[in-house]
Amino acid sequence: MLKNPSKPLIITRHSEGGWLAFLYYLWLFYNINPSYDKAIPIRITFGSPLLGDDGLYRAIQSRLGWYPQFLHVVSDGDLIRGTFVSSSANNSYKPFGTFIVCSSSSKACACFEDPDSVLNVLAATVESFQMLKLMDYVNLLQDIAD
C-alpha cells in the first residue's frame, strides 16, 4: 500500500476480530508517513463489540482524517455486537465512526454517527431481539442490496 498509494487498503474483521483490526489500524496509522495521505486505510468491522471510552473518542476526533475512517456494520440479531451494550446511562463506552445498523428481519439499514444515538439504538435492539446468533454478514448485506 505504501509503495502504491493509489490502491486503498481496507482492514476488516468480524466479531472480536474487530478489536484486533482496530489495534492494527492504530499501529498502522501511527506509523504511516503523513505524505501518504491518499493511502489512509479504511477500517470496517462486522458485529464487533464496542471499544473505547470518552478519552479514546476525543483522541480519534482530534486526529485529522481519522474519524471518518471507522465504519461499523452491525445487525440487530448479532450476538457479539451486543455483548457489552446496556441500556443503563452508566455505559462507559463511547462509540466513534459511522455505524450501519441492519435489521435482519426487515432487510433495512440506518446510519448513525452520534455516540449517544449509537448506544441507544444498540441497547434497544439488544433488549428487543431474543434470538441472538452469529450473523452471516455477507448474505445479510447481499439481501439488503437486492
From TrEMBL:
GO terms for molecular function: carboxylic ester hydrolase activity. It comes from the Eukaryota. This is Fungal lipase-type domain-containing protein. Pfam families: Lipase_3. Residues 3-80 form the Fungal lipase-type domain. SUPFAM superfamilies: alpha/beta-Hydrolases. One of its GO terms (biological process) is lipid metabolic process.
